[in-house]
Design goal:
The protein has about 325 residues and is mostly helical. It has one domain: Hypothetical protein af1432 (Orthogonal Bundle), CATH 1.10.3210.10. It has 16 helices and no strands.
């Protein structure tokens, strides 16, 4: 037996009966199996080595990356989601390799400038835009010169359904979905406190009494609640009062931070950059990359390809493109 086969057999013997098993994983295109790694391990590695994953280091999480070196980026958020999800999955005896692959890939399709950018592309493009759908498009179509990464169905389904309103099929994907929410609420709150936008006193007293007096204490309490409430169950659940507290924390963050705060003016500037770039590339698609032009020649809709190009930009590259197209250079002024 190969090392992979030994590990696949071990999963059936040792993991929860509700856990996904790598031996049952399905790919759209058949390929030769690895002697060492299971299918989910290979998916994790393919995501880490993808170009889209590397770009996450220069994409905004909530606060624009050039406002402070210590604010979370989309990459650090992704790593934090993976860490939380692995902690929960390990405690529940689920498939940690699948959890890690989904967590590392869940935000690959995010735009520059965070959810502000996602909203602009959804507003401008007739085809609409959602970062979870773009994440799946990246691994199915755009990576590796149009060949995609050929990830397993289980990983792609988890990436597609990590948003709040979705209901993932595997328990591993359900873990990532909740871990994403835990991570962005508490870590974004930590950044907001560091930026002087909110204070600990802004968190309702009853929530602090229930979950803890700091972001770290509340996150720890919510993680433990998920683990103990989901033990030996065919779904990932929370206590009702903890779920309500998390919902209220999320609502507070949307009101005080995501849709407000002192950086609103800077975020508006970022939105203008993406609006201008969308109109520019839609009117002149030949100005996009050679890969995008090839997709247009192959019959892809123009609005879809413009979304592909802009959503793949880092914050820094989007600013540079804007400057090149709309800001006059000194040598051109007489």
């Amino acid at each position: 037996m190969t090392i992979r086969e030994i590990n696949e057999e071990r999963e059936y013997k040792e993991l929860s009966p509700f856990a996904a098993k790598a031996a049952d994983a399905v790919r759209d295109r058949e390929e030769e199996e690895c002697e060492i790694r299971t299918s989910f391990q290979r998916d994790r590695d393919r995501i880490i080595h993808s170009r889209a994953f590397r770009r996450l280091k220069d994409k905004t999480q909530v606060f624009l990356t050039f406002q402070d070196d210590h604010y979370r980026t989309r990459l650090t958020h992704t790593i934090e989601v993976s860490q939380i999800a692995r902690t929960i999955a390990k405690a529940l005896n689920l498939n940690c390799d699948l959890v890690e692959a989904i967590a590392l890939g869940h935000d690959l399709g995010h735009t520059p400038f965070g959810h502000e950018g996602e909203g602009i592309l959804n507003e401008k493009a007739a085809c609409g835009f959602a970062h979870n759908e773009q994440s799946v498009r990246l691994v199915e179509v755009l990576e590796k010169d149009g060949k995609g990464l050929n990830l397993t169905k289980e990983v792609r389904e988890g990436m597609q359904n990590h948003r709040t309103r979705c209901k993932p099929k595997t328990l591993e994907a359900q873990v990532v979905r909740l871990s994403d929410k835990l991570a962005y609420i508490h870590h974004d709150m930590d950044d907001a406190k560091a930026g002087g936008i909110i204070t600990e006193e802004d968190v309702p007293a009853d929530i602090r009494a229930l979950l803890g007096q700091t972001c770290t204490e509340r996150l720890d309490a919510l993680i433990k609640d998920i683990i103990y409430k989901s033990m030996d169950k065919p779904e990932i659940v929370q206590s009702e009062d903890y779920a309500e507290a998390l919902y209220r924390l999320r609502a507070m963050m949307f009101e005080r931070v995501y849709y407000g705060g002192p950086f609103r003016e800077e975020n508006d500037k970022a939105c203008r950059i993406l609006r201008e770039l969308y109109d520019f590339y839609y009117a002149g698609p030949e100005k996009m990359s050679a890969d995008c032009i090839k997709m247009l020649e192959g019959g892809e809709a123009k609005d879809r390809v413009v979304c592909d190009y802009i959503s793949g930009m880092t914050d820094r590259f989007a600013v540079r493109c804007f400057e090149e197209q709309f800001i006059p250079m000194a040598r051109g002024i007489y």
